[in-house]
Specification:
Layout: E1 2-8, E2 11-16, E3 27-35, H1 38-45, E4 56-57, E5 61-69, E6 81-84, H2 94-97, H3 112-115, E7 125-127, H4 130-133, E8 135-136, H5 143-162, E9 170-174, H6 178-189, E10 194-198, H7 202-210, E11 215-217, H8 224-231, E12 237-242, H9 249-256, E13 257-265, E14 290-293, H10 300-311, E15 321-325, H11 331-340, E16 347-351
Parallel strand pairs: 9-10, 9-12, 10-11, 12-13, 13-14, 15-16
Antiparallel strand pairs: 1-2, 1-4, 3-5, 3-7, 3-16, 5-6, 6-8
Helix pairs in contact: 5-6, 5-10, 8-9
The structure holds NADPH dihydro-nicotinamide-adenine-dinucleotide phosphate (NDP) and zinc ion (ZN).
C-alpha cells in the first residue's frame, strides 16, 4: 500500500509498505477523509517527532470505513463508518486508567499514530484497541464535518474545558487557526458572554464571528494585551484559551487574566527552550491564577459525545475547511499548504467520497 511518510527530518515523501496487521483488539480502517494538522508539520519540519524510526507514515486526522476487526473487537464490524480520534491511547496503562490516556507512556504518547506506528495518510491503517478508540459516525454527520471533529473540535473544545469556562464569563482566545476557532466554539457552548478572539486572517475572522466571537483583536495592530485591556475597560478577562502564538503568548495571556482566572493552553511551543512568565502578571506568584496545558484526551467516549453536537444540528464543524481535495495523492499538497499557511487557509482536507 501507499502512504505519505516522514522519511527523515525535513523530508516528506511517498512510501510503499505492506498493509498493517490486525491484532485481536485492533481494526484496519480505509480512509474516506484525511486532513493534515499543524502537528504533522511540526513532526516533519519541526522538533515534534518522538520516535527515531525512519519512513513513518504521517497523519492522525481521519474518517474511514472499517475493513477488518480483530477477534476480540465487540462493537465494530467491517463496513462500519467511523471517526478515528487523533489520540488513540493504550487504555490498559495506569495513566489511561487515571483519565490521562493522552500521556499513556509519557508526555503526549497517547497519539499512537506516528509515535509508535504508521499514521492515517495511508491506503489502510491500524487502530489499536478499536472498541476504545473508534467512534461510530452517525448518518446525519457529513464526512467533511467528521474529519474536523477527529482532532480540531476535540482539541479546541479541550482548551475551553481546561479553562473551566462558566456561564457569563468573558473569555479571550489567543489564535484563531482551526484549533482556536474550535476554542471559540467551545467557549460559546460553555456560556461565555464575550469572546475576544486574537488573530488576523480574514477567513478565520469570519468563522470566528460565526462560532461566537464578539470582538476581534489583531495582534499586528499594536500590543495585544493593551488592546484586550482597552476592550474590557481595564478589567481583563475571566478565562483564556491559548491556541496560537509563540512562547511569549503565555505571558500575554497571563497579563490579561483576572485574579482567580484559568489559562487553558493547547498550543504547542515547538522548539522553545523556555516559556517566560512576567512575574507581576502572576502577582509574583500570588495571583491565584492557574495555568493549565494539555493534549486533547482521546478515545471513543469523548468522540461519540462531541459528535452529537453536530449530529443534532447544534454546530457545523466543516466551516474550517477552506481547501478541499478529492484524490488520495492530494494529501501531499495539503501538507505543503498546511506548512506554508497562505492567508486564505484555515484547514485543508482530502475528501475521498
Ligand atoms: P494555526 O497556525 O493555523 O493558527 C495559529 C493562530 O495563532 C492564527 O490565528 C494566528 O494568527 C495566531 N497567532 C500567530 N501569532 C500570534 C501572536 N503573536 N499572538 C496571537 N495570535 C497569534 O495553528 P492551528 O490552529 O492549526 O494549531 C494551533 C496549535 O495547536 C499548534 O501549535 C498545534 O500544534 C497545536 N495542536 C495541539 C493539539 C493538542 O492536543 N494540544 C492538537 C492539535 C494541534 P493569523 O490569523 O494572523 O494567522
Ligand atoms: Zn493534530
Amino acid at each position: 500500500m501507499r502512504g505519505l511518510a516522514r522519511i527523515d527530518q525535513d523530508v516528506m515523501d511517498w512510501v510503499e509498505k505492506d498493509k498493517p496487521e490486525c491484532g485481536p483488539y485492533d481494526a484496519i480502517v480505509k480512509p474516506i477523509a484525511l486532513a493534515p494538522c499543524t502537528s504533522d508539520v511540526h513532526i516533519v519540519w519541526g522538533n515534534a517527532y518522538m520516535s527515531d524510526a525512519p519512513n513513518r507514515i504521517l497523519g492522525h486526522e481521519s474518517t474511514g470505513i472499517v475493513e477488518e476487526v480483530g477477534s476480540h473487537v465487540k462493537d465494530f464490524k467491517p463496513g462500519d463508518r467511523v471517526i478515528v480520534p487523533a489520540i488513540t491511547p493504550d487504555w490498559l496503562t495506569v495513566p489511561g486508567q487515571k483519565g490521562f490516556g493522552q500521556h499513556c507512556y509519557g508526555m503526549g504518547t497517547g497519539m499512537s499514530f506516528i509515535t509508535f506506528k504508521d499514521g492515517t495518510f495511508a491506503e489502510h491503517f491500524n487502530v489499536n484497541q478499536a472498541d476504545g478508540n473508534l467512534a461510530h459516525l452517525p448518518d446525519e454527520v457529513s464526512v467533511d464535518q467528521a474529519v474536523m471533529i477527529s482532532d480540531m473540535m476535540t482539541t479546541g473544545f479541550y482548551g475551553a474545558e481546561l479553562a473551566e469556562i462558566k456561564p457569563g464569563e468573558t473569555v479571550a482566545v489567543f489564535g484563531i487557526g482551526p484549533v482556536g476557532l474550535m476554542g471559540v466554539a467551545g467557549a460559546h457552548f460553555m456560556g461565555a458572554s464575550r469572546i475576544l478572539a486574537v488573530g488576523s486572517r480574514p477567513v478565520s475572522v469570519k468563522v470566528a464571528k460565526e462560532y461566537g466571537a464578539s470582538d476581534i483583536v489583531d495582534y499586528h495592530d499594536g500590543d495585544t494585551v493593551q488592546q484586550i485591556m482597552d476592550l474590557t475597560d481595564g478589567e481583563g478577562v475571566d478565562k483564556v484559551v491559548v491556541a496560537g502564538g509563540n512562547a511569549n503568548t503565555v505571558g500575554e495571556a497571563l497579563e490579561v487574566l483576572k485574579v482567580g482566572g484559568i489559562l487553558g493552553n493547547v498550543n504547542h511551543y515547538d522548539g522553545a527552550a523556555e516559556i517566560p512568565l512576567p512575574a507581576l502578571a502572576w502577582g509574583a506568584g500570588l495571583a491565584d491564577k492557574t495555568i493549565r496545558g494539555g493534549v486533547c484526551p482521546g478515545g471513543r467516549a469523548r468522540m461519540e459525545q462531541l459528535v452529537k453536537l453536530v449530529q443534532y444540528g447544534r454546530f457545523d464543524s466543516s466551516k474550517l475547511i477552506t481547501h478541499r481535495f478529492t484524490n488520495f495523492d492530494d494529501i501531499y499538497e495539503a501538507m505543503i499548504i498546511m506548512r506554508d499557511k497562505p492567508r486564505d487557509l484555515i484547514k485543508p482536507a482530502v475528501i475521498l467520497e
